[in-house]
Please model this.
Amino acid sequence: MGADERTADDVLAQLRAYREHDAPTHGGRVLSYVYDSGRADLDEVAAQAMRLLQPVNGLDPTTFPSVALMESDLVAFGRDMLHGPTATGSVTSGGTESCLLAVKAARDRWVSRGGAGRPRLVLSSSTHAAFHKAAHYFGLDVEVVPVDVVTGRAAPGELEAALGPEVALVVVSAPSYPHGVVDAVADVARAAADLGIPCHVDACVGGWVLPWWEEAGGEPLPQWDFRVYGVTSISADIHKYGYVPKGASLLLFADGELDLARYFATTGWLGYPVVNPTMLGTRSATSLAAAWAVVQTLGPDGYAGLTRRVVDATRAVVATVDGVEGLRVLGDRQGPLVAVATDEDVAPERRVDPLLWVTAVAERGFVLQGQPSLEQPDGTVVPHTAHLTITPVTEGLLDELSAALVGGAEAVRGHAVPSPEALSADGIPDPAALADAARDGADLDLTGVLTLIEALPRDASAQLLSAFLQRFTAPRS
Model:
């Protein structure tokens, strides 16, 4: 062993030390980002599958046919699950890549059919930010339709009114991440189809749980998948309620023409012919293998059983929030996501601010996610909220979680968040100083950060956060 080499034990010990700083990915104490099935056997089969495919390059399935076989099986499962018997598609690295490819395919088809100038992407205020990213990357203008402040859903008539010959794609959600609301998919998709415009359903969160929701005792859902006339593509993240390791998402298209438009292919160089069905060229097959193994292990019955636990836990959490004076569930939620806002119908001294509530609940052992308010294009303001993602393991922690939710609310009832004007009075804070303090172990004032985002122009807050993350992840000198 050379002087600069280290033993595997030393390297793994350092990695374990790094992991001690992470939020827990199992156990149900983080109600965002992680999707814990509570089944150790799924973690084990995924780990073994990843190890088997560790050296395989997903770039060329003709050299590594296992890649094509696993992907074909997952697409077939998705066809049945999403009721698209002839749908085609691919497994991607995650929801963002699926969304990017859906936009890229729609843009390319718009151009091929004679579209000239700069195409438009129509979506609502609650549509995932990945679509804004796609528009930025691929040169589309974005038209944002406001959501109703009470229901959390954009009026289908307003989405339809935004459609026109320069629109390459309209996006609806099932459900939206911020408030867990299923959009008016049927109305929007029908209007889009009548104009020859593709309609993408972003089911990145819901795609692997809503298919079993009603069967598992959940509230009735409108149709939102390929059974709906006019739905041309769907993204459904397997690494969310599919319960597989990051990152794996399924992207399906209703027709082969649109599906083919997501590909990049060239023979115009001296090397091997390049045919990429996704954004990546060389790509690991480990996530694909883990996804295939878990889906094969669970099957429809396994997913139905896990969904029953999610339904029961969601119902209990919503009941707890409904019983807390000063808080209210925001939006016509359907599914496992819950957004909680201040109940402004009670006296100010009895209200609970959700951002302060997030901090108080964290002190009691559970991590919720704060979401800043947003002024929409029509001037209406969607209030800031706390977001909760409910998973199967939540069911086993309901007593403790309910106590934390109620106790956290009691601790901050009647308190107000810092004034946005006060937070921004001295201008935009130095992101390097914030990052250095966080790297040195200081707790970030997330309530202050979110309130500052609300106070600053959105471009300014985005630049601040980018500079913060750039510094936070930079090598320590």
Observations:
- The CA atoms of residues 175 and 182 lie 4 Å apart.
- The chain has a mean pLDDT of 92.
- The longest strand covers residues 167-173.
